[in-house]
């Protein structure tokens, strides 16, 4: 079977724990022979990283925020993600367009339709093959954030109602596209979560012509942060 590329995204509330698992996922895929691009949003390009700093730390109108998110995403998609996929690489991205549906569309109550219009314009019908949604109750996410962050960005400082709307929007996205989403109960221990992730990755690898390497034979991933913010 000819090997083919795969676009995997990771989503979830700030504090859901997804970034804890990104180095492990990277190592798991590379041990299976995958040529991997690991990246993040907002960011992923020199311009995107500049826009990221503005988005996380400068107050702005909601429409400005949404447009800047998609400006960074367009640059990311056109200059890094799409060329990687077309060249046969796999792409692992910490957040993508589902985050805009959740945070701007849901949390900030913009609604899904403006986000969908921008998604169609930028991505022209192409998107992730698999989305890992790390899901925890709001109380768990807030507790983890309070223990792990010295300084919060302007999204993390939002109130509980904002994050409940964000979580509900994520769940609506997952319910509407169950073939793409894998909802991970991130309240569990790391070993249990990684056992589930291993099964998902093995399925993706086999479907694209790779002979998976057992996670049991892989050394533990080094501790530290992923390319995305620790979330």
Report on this structure:
The chain is of the alpha/beta class. The protein has one domain (7-209): Rossmann fold (3-Layer(aba) Sandwich), CATH 3.40.50.300. The chain is built from eight helices and five strands, in the order βαβααβααβααβα. It has a five-stranded parallel sheet with strand order 2-3-1-4-5, sandwiched between helices. Helix 2 packs antiparallel against helix 3. The radius of gyration is 17 Å and the shape is globular. The relative contact order is 0.24. It catalyses: dTMP + ATP = dTDP + ADP. GO terms for molecular function: ATP binding; dTMP kinase activity. Its EC number is 2.7.4.9. ATP binds at residues 12-19.
Chain-wise SSE layout:
Layout (H helix, E strand, L loop, with lengths): L6 E6 L5 H14 L4 E5 L5 H12 L4 H25 L3 E5 L2 H11 L4 H12 L6 E6 L2 H11 L11 H17 L4 E5 L4 H18 L24
Parallel strand pairs: 1-3, 1-4, 2-3, 4-5
Give a brief outline of the structure.
By secondary structure, this protein is α/β, with parallel strands linked by helices.
Q: Please state the CA-atom Rg, rounded to the nearest Å.
A: 17 Å
Q: What's the domain count? A: 1
CATH architecture designation: 3-Layer(aba) Sandwich
Count of DSSP H/I helices: 8
CATH-defined topology:
Rossmann fold
Counting helices, strands and paired strands, the structural category is: alpha/beta
CATH superfamily: P-loop containing nucleotide triphosphate hydrolases
The share of residues in helices is 40-55%
For the termini, the CA-CA separation is 36 Å
User: Which sequence of SSEs, written as H and E, runs from N to C?
Assistant: EHEHHEHHEHHEH
> Biggest sheet, strands in spatial order?
2-3-1-4-5
Based on CA inertia axes, which overall geometry fits?
globular
Query: What is the CATH top level name?
Result: Alpha Beta
Q: What is the averaged pLDDT score?
A: 90
* Percent range for β-strand residues: 5-15%
Biggest sheet features: 5 strands, parallel
Protein name: Thymidylate kinase
InterPro entries: P-loop_NTPase, Thymidylate_kin-like_dom, Thymidylate_kinase
Binding site for ATP: 12-19
GO molecular function: ATP binding; dTMP kinase activity
């Amino acid at each position: 079977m000819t090997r083919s590329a795969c676009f995997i995204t990771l989503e979830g509330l700030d504090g859901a724990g997804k970034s804890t698992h990104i180095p492990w996922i990277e190592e798991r895929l590379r041990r299976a022979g995958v040529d991997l691009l690991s990246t993040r949003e907002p960011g992923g390009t020199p311009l995107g990283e500049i826009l990221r700093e503005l988005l996380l730390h400068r107050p702005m109108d909601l429409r400005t925020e949404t447009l800047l998110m998609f400006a960074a995403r367009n640059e990311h998609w056109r200059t890094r993600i799409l060329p990687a996929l077309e060249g046969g690489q796999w792409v692992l991205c910490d957040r993508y367009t589902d985050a805009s549906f959740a945070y701007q569309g849901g949390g900030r109550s913009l609604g899904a339709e403006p986000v969908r219009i921008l998604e169609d314009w930028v991505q022209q019908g192409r998107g992730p093959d698999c989305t890992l949604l790390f899901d925890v109750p709001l109380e768990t996410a807030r507790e983890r954030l309070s223990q792990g962050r010295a300084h919060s960005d302007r999204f993390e400082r939002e109130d509980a109602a904002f994050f409940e709307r964000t979580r509900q929007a994520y769940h609506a996205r997952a319910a509407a596209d169950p073939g793409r989403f894998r909802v991970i109960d991130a309240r569990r221990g790391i070993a249990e979560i990684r056992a589930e992730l291993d099964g998902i990755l093995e399925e993706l690898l086999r479907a694209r012509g790779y002979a998976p390497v057992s996670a049991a034979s892989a050394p533990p991933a080094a501790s530290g942060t992923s390319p995305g913010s620790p979330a």
